[in-house]
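Need residues for this backbone.
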């Protein structure tokens, strides 16, 4: 595991190392994908970049970061995982470093298992992940009294992506959208909104943070001097406790309580955290009674927020409570189309968009992540973005979502499609009108179920696994030239997907 890297900037070192290595990592032909996103630049200890890590470790690190970003979402990733640096891999152990003791403890307590699991998928034999404070940080900072501030807590990046214009409205989110828009207009015009605070709630990944950022962007666009403060409830707590430890809560209080618009995201996080809730209650009160604006989000309604003090809940219920529900197919499809309209270089056929909208139903973050992954991998390997490629790239996501398809179902569909009986498919008959559909059914069984070749052979009248292998190969070859067969298979796959 030793290859030396040139002493270049961190992201270049990581990129170059992964680009230079030709060896595929595990089974994935897309091993570099983790380094495609600017989000994932860096993450490499400067000492490691000077030569102690090999290309496999670097590529695995890129993938681990990509997976964690898509699993945990940008907010959590940026706050806690983006600052991690890879400093070494040896003897089944991955060593990571962070800039402060506080962060090291936090990451250890909250993410160590997830990191270990993610690494083990890409570097066989990884048993342990160790998180240390980086040597440079120990010299430069006072970690115990000054916890890391991995991302700006004060003013959100206001991502231009997160605007009202880019938010696609459907039945499930129109109340929240209208409420957010009304509040933003009231803050900028000074006219009463008729409610304050605004409480947005809904399951993860459905656009609460997007709407908060959109409110903030609109307010700042109208009045760049407005004091807009956005922070997650987690960061509220971390900063408050740090201020308490440093015996200096005045600056913290002033910064939040003087906001014209204060937005606190994911408030469920402070459930059961008594002293933080106390502070939060006074902050809310001060903001509202001074006629300034408050927006709160949570993953559930105020009635269901267990562990949050009743005085906070009743304060929240005074305002407007707007829910966001899971998107239906139409909204999911429109969201994808809107995202694609902003990416003129991406050529994604409509059947792929429909497929994604049909398959990825849990939340918009996952939907967006799936689309980005297909596009990024397509660019990386230079493949046409069709349904086969999409299924290949998203195999893990689809597996998690899909119901179990059986060989019986495949046989039934194929038999119907070719106007045959199921018995024809498992019979010894070799006539072409039976043999070709049988090969199609075997091919689909191999592609769409986890069954092994011998198992599939057994289910087709006790045939040998080499017969199945031959069928799969033959259909793959024919699909490239026989358009009718290709169309049949696409139709069958769509039918089986539903
Ligand atoms: N209606 C929508 N139109 C366009 N993009 C959307 C929509 N809903 C969600 N998104 C996108 O989905 C992603 C996840 O949304 P967001 O982070 O706002 O979710 P959230 O509800 O705050 O999740 P969490 O509870 O995990 O914080 C973002 O990239 C956001 O832009």
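Answer:
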């Amino acid at each position: 595991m030793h290859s030396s890297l040139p002493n270049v900037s961190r992201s270049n070192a990581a990129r170059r190392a992964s680009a230079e290595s030709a060896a595929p990592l595990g089974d994935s032909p897309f091993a570099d994908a983790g380094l495609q996103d600017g989000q994932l630049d860096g993450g490499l200890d400067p000492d490691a970049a000077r030569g102690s890590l090999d290309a496999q470790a670097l590529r695995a690190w890129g993938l681990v970061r990509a997976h964690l970003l898509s699993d945990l979402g940008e907010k959590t990733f940026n706050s806690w995982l983006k600052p991690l640096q890879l400093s070494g891999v040896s003897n089944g152990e991955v060593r990571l470093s962070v800039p402060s003791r506080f962060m090291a403890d936090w990451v250890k307590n909250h993410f160590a298992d997830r990191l270990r699991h993610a690494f083990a998928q890409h570097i066989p034999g990884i048993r342990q992940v160790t998180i240390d404070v980086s040597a440079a940080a120990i010299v430069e900072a006072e970690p115990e009294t000054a916890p890391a501030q991995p991302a700006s807590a004060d003013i959100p990046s206001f991502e231009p992506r997160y605007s009202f214009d880019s938010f696609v409205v459907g039945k499930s989110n129109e109340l929240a959208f209208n409420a957010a828009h009304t509040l933003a207009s009231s803050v900028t015009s000074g006219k009463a909104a008729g409610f304050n605070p605004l409480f947005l709630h809904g399951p993860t990944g459905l656009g609460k943070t997007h709407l908060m950022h959109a409110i903030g962007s609109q307010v700042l666009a109208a009045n760049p001097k407005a004091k807009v403060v956005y922070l997650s409830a987690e960061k509220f707590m971390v900063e408050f406790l740090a201020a308490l430890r440093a015996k200096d809560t005045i600056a913290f209080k002033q910064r939040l309580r003087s906001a014209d618009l204060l937005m606190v995201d994911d408030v469920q996080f402070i459930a059961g955290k008594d002293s933080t809730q106390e502070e939060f209650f006074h902050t809310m009160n001060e903001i509202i009674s001074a006629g300034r604006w408050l927006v709160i989000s949570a993953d559930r309604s105020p009635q269901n927020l267990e562990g949050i003090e009743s005085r906070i809940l009743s304060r929240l219920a005074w305002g407007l409570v707007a829910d966001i529900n899971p998107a239906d197919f139409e909204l999911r499809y429109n969201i994808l189309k809107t995202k694609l309209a902003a990416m003129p270089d991406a050529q994604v056929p409509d059947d792929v968009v429909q497929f994604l909208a049909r398959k990825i139903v849990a939340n918009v973050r996952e939907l967006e992540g799936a689309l980005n992954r297909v596009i990024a991998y397509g660019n990386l390997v230079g493949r046409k973005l069709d349904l086969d490629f999409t299924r290949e790239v998203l195999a893990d996501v689809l597996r998690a979502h899909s119901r179990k398809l059986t060989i019986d179902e495949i046989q039934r569909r194929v038999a119907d499609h070719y106007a045959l009986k199921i018995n024809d498919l498992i019979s010894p008959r070799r006539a072409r009108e039976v043999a070709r559909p049988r090969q199609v059914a075997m091919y689909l069984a191999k592609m769409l179920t986890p069954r092994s070749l011998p198992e599939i052979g057994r289910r087709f009248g006790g045939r040998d696994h080499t017969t199945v292998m031959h069928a799969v190969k033959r259909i793959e070859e024919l699909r490239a030239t026989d358009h009718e067969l290709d169309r049949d298979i696409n139709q069958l796959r769509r039918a089986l997907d539903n």
